[in-house]
Amino acid sequence: MRLKLGMVGGGEGAFIGAVHRLAARMDDEFELVAGAFSSDRQNCLRSGALLHLQPDRCYADFNQMALAEAAREDGIDVVAIVTPNHLHAPVASAFLNAGIDVICDKPLCTSYAEALQLAQMVRHSGRQLILTHNYSAYPLVREARSRILAGELGEIRFIEVEYLQQWLAKPLELTDNKQAGWRAQPEKAGSGCIGDVGTHAWQLAEFVSGMLPEAISAELTSFIAGRKLDDDVRVQMRYANGAKGRLWASQVACGHENGLKLRVYGSEGSLEFCQENPNQLWIRPFDAPPYCITRASAFQHVENRQLARVPAGHPEGYLEGFSQIYREAARCLRDGPSAAPLLPGIETGVQGMAFIDAAQRSSRAGGEWVALISP
Q1: Which stretches make up the GFO/IDH/MocA-like oxidoreductase domain (predicted)?
Q2: What is the pTM (predicted TM-score) of this model?
């Protein structure tokens, strides 16, 4: 039986809500039955009607939705939060308090202190909070992780990760662009480029390598005059085993559309994954010819090959990565966290907020090295 899904946010003109809805439907594990798509009642009703929902399950207030759905015999099993960042924690708190599990877009919230409070609430409620770091669910990202953890690259020496976009290279927030508008407001976004795409790069590097830095040195910059939040992030990283790392995230890098790239170098070889070519993973052994592993090929580990939804040679990427998160979320909600051990959860969210906090403190101190807080 499909799980009953509710959604907060994702109404008219929203982008990520539609992505979540497609992902939730792809494996037929969820049915959208309720939503608080907008605080504007008429907007909410219009959005719900387009999604074929009953008017009485379209709410203009998420608190009302949490209470009403918890009281229904046929109420939702889980809610997806697809709002601007400042609402993530309040919405999650309302549904956790109502005994309803949560799937939340990243970043987790707007501050490290808020993240710790939310983590305490998750533990106290006994419910689950799942974070949609979709790139970590790509079949070849999972393959890269498997090979590194199996020791194929030897001892890790360098980690290089970047996430480059150009879409904010002009002051788009001064236009009627809804996505740019809220991302430029500190009270709604909490952080700029570092939270929007920097946390994706951070989580990808940690997920694939299995390593978190001990300390970072960061420089956050706003290149667009008058922009209140960072649009370019440069971070150096130090690891406990002596490895070094660099992270560059930018939304003003002209010529780049969605350039998320990871390279990991070890004593016995290196690997490279580029999100814009998600069906290829390059392996470069020491003193041997490089080779490319393709998605769904016989050269993948079986458990990673089984993640593919279409045959080898057919393109698969962003939406399928999201759908894998939702597929594993369904297992997790039915059978507990052990049923989906690689699914990003509250710990991943807290780590992401600790990274943002440390980078901001380092940047304010002129790039001073800052120890990472252990969640």
Answers
A1: 141-272
A2: 0.96
- pLDDT 10s digits, 162-175: 999 999 999 999 99
DSSP three-state, residue 335 = helix
DSSP β-ladder status, 3-9 and 78-82: parallel
Amino acid identity, position 121: M
Q: Quote the tokens at residue 37.
A: 């798509």
What pLDDT, on the 0 to 100 scale, is given for residue 373? 78
Average pLDDT over residues 182-207: 97
Mapped onto helix, strand or coil, the DSSP state of residue 271 is strand
Q: Which residue has the tokens 């959208």?
A: 32
pLDDT of residue 12: 86
Q: Strands 370-371, 215-221: parallel, antiparallel or unpaired by DSSP?
A: antiparallel
Q: Is residue 216 within 8 Å of residue 238, measured between CB atoms?
A: yes
Burial group, residue 301, by CB count within 10 angstroms (0-12, 13-18, 19+): middle
In angstroms, the CA 256 to CA 168 distance is 11
Q: Is residue 238 within 8 Å of residue 215, measured between CB atoms?
A: yes
Q: What residues contact residue 204 under an 8 Å CB cut-off, 6+ apart?
A: 133, 135, 136, 141, 161, 260, 262
The token pair at 220 is: 């956050």
Query: Could you tell me whether strands 30-36 and 3-9 are parallel, antiparallel, or unpaired per DSSP bridges?
Result: parallel
